[in-house]
Amino acid sequence: MEKNGLKRTALFETHTALDARMVRFSGWEMPLLYSGIAQEHRAVREAAGLFDISHMGEFQFDGPDALEFLNHILSNDLTKLEPGIGQYSLLCQDNGGVIDDLYAYRLGQDRYLLIVNASRLEVDWMWIKAQLNSGNKSLQLEMTNRSGELSAIALQGPKAAEIIAGVFPAAIEMQKNQIAELDFSGATTWVSRTGYTGEDGFELVVPNERVVSLWKQFMSLGPALGLMPAGLGARDTLRTEAGYSLYGHELTAETTPIEASLGWAVALDKPDFIGRETLAAQKQNGVSRRCIGFKMTSKSAPPREHYKIFAADGTGREIGEVTSGMQSPSLGYGIGLGYVESAHAKSGTDIEIEIRNRRFLAQVVKRPIFRKLD
Amino acid sequence: MSDIPTDLKYASSHEWVNVEGDTAIIGISDHAQDELTELVFIELPEIGRELAAGDPCAVVESVKTASDIYAPVSGQVIETNDALDTEPGTVNEDPYGDGWFFKIRLANPKELDDLLSPDDYGEQVNV
C-alpha cells in the first residue's frame, strides 16, 4: 500500500494503533519507536522485542542452475549450504564495491531465497537480472521478486525461543542460521533463526494477509515474558552494539567487503565470482583503510555519522570518519563504527573523535562492541 | 497534545522563556522533548558567554540525533543547570521545571515582544 509516495507495510494500522512514531525509511513509512528507543532496546537485551521488517525484500530462485548462478554473483560459498541453512553474503560489483549485503538461504535442493535491504531492493533486482541475461548460455532458473506479497517480522531477544514456541513449537529446535518452512494457519511461513540485534532470535516471512494475525499472536503471548514492540531506532542501536554493518553507512558501492572487515563472508577459495579478482588482491596485499568498532574512553557527547577520526599517536593526523555513532543504551557511553587507515585499525588502538571542533579520546574495540556477560 | 504553560513565552525553534525581572530562564518545550525522544547528553553554554538572539548555544543529543538549541533572546549566561550533565532525562520528565537549561541576564528586554505567546506557539506545534 502506498500513501503520499511512501509505502506502508501490512502492519501499518497495527503500529498506529500502538501509537508508534512513524518515520520515512527507504521509501517506507516505518515505526521509529513505540514506547522509547532505550526502553525497547533494553527489552530486546533482557527479554524480547518484536520488529516489523516487511520493508525488506525477498527474491526467490528456482531451478537446477540456481546454485551455480547465485554462487557466481555472491561472495560467500553457497555450495556449503545444506537445504534449510542460510548464510550472510555480499553482492559485489566487478571492482569489489558492495551493491548490498544480504542473507542467502537454501530452501530446498534447487530453491534459494535472498533477503535484501529495502534501500537496495530495486538496484539489486536490476543488477541480478542483468547478470542473468549477460551470460552466453541459457540457465535453467526462475527468478521471482516476492517482496510485494510477503511481509516479515523479527522476534529477538533471550526470551524469543520461549515466545515462538507458543506459535511454532518446532522452531525451538532450530540451530543458528537454520530456516524452516512451517505452517501458520494454512500459510507457508519461513522461520529462520537469525537476526540483526546480537541476541538469539527468529525472523519470520509470511504472506501479507497473515502478518497481522501472527504479530497479534506474539503480542498476546509475549508481554508476560517482557516482549515489547520495537522500532527502527532500537534496531539501529542494537545492531551497532553488535557491530553489524548497515548499507549506506559501513557499506557502499565505494567500499569492499575486505575494507569493511567482512572477509569472513568472502569465499576466495571459490573458483570464480564477481569481484573475486579485486578482493583476492586486497586480501593478499592489504587495504589502506578498514572498518572498525570503537568506544569513547573520555566523557563526551555521542559520536555521530561523518564525524572525523584523528590519530592519537601525537601526530594529530586525520585518519578516517565515523559511519555510525550513538550513545550505547547498554553501555551508557558513546560507541560507533567507522573507517580508519589500516595502521590504526587494531583493537586497543587509541584514536580521537572530533565532536563540534573538540577532539575526544576513543579506542578501537573488537566487534561485537557490547557483549553480555554470561 | 503537548503541554504549553500559559505563563511562558516561546521561540518558534521550541525554547521557552520565563522572565523574572532582568533574568530569563530558558528551556525547551514539552513538544520539543517529545519530538527529540529520550535525551542522553546535553551540552550547555559556558557561564559568562554573551548570546545574541538566534545563536546556537546548546546541543541536545537523543539516542538517535544531535540537535541545536538557540538563544531565544540576547544576554549573558549567568547560570546553567549542571544537574542535566548527569541526568539529561530530566528534560524529558520535567521540561518546564527541573529540566531548565540556563539563565541569562537580558541584554534587550524588548526582544521579548518578538517571542510567541502560548496560543501562537500552540498553533505552531499542533497543526
Folded structure, characterized:
- Chain A has 374 residues and is α+β, with helices and mostly antiparallel strands.
- Chain A has three domains: 2-56 and 148-242, Gyrase A, domain 2 (2-Layer Sandwich), CATH 3.30.1360; 57-145, Aminomethyltransferase beta-barrel domains (Alpha-Beta Plaits, 2-Layer Sandwich), CATH 3.30.70.1400; 288-365, Aminomethyltransferase beta-barrel domains (Elongation Factor Tu (Ef-tu), domain 3), CATH 2.40.30.
- Chain A has eight helices and 21 strands.
- In chain A, strands 12-13-14-11-5-15 form a six-stranded mixed beta sheet, sandwiched between helices. In chain A, strands 16-19-18-17-20-21 form a six-stranded antiparallel β-barrel. Chain A has a five-stranded antiparallel beta sheet with strand order 7-8-9-6-10.
- In chain A, strand 1 (2-3) and strand 2 form a beta hairpin.
- The longest helix of chain A is centred in the middle third of the chain and has 14 residues, at 121-134.
- Chain A is globular and about 65 Å long.
- Chain A starts with a strand and ends in a 9-residue tail after the last strand.
- The model of chain A has no long low-confidence stretch (mean pLDDT 96).
- Chain B has 127 residues and is an alpha+beta fold.
- Chain B is 18% helix and 35% strand.
- In chain B, a hairpin with a 3-residue loop joins strand 6 (56-62) and strand 7 (66-70).
- A six-stranded antiparallel beta sheet of chain B has the order 1-2-3-9-8-5. Chain B has a three-stranded antiparallel beta sheet with strand order 4-6-7.
- The model of chain B has no long low-confidence stretch (mean pLDDT 95).
- Chain B has one domain (9-107): OB fold (Dihydrolipoamide Acetyltransferase, E2P) (Beta Barrel).
- Chain B starts with 8 loop residues before the first strand and ends with a helix.
- Chain B has helices at residues 30-36, 83-86, 90-93, 118-125; strands spanning 9-10, 15-20, 23-28, 39-43, 50-51, 56-62, 66-70, 75-80, 102-106.
- Chain B is built from four helices and nine strands.
- The chains are: A alpha+beta (374), B alpha+beta (127).
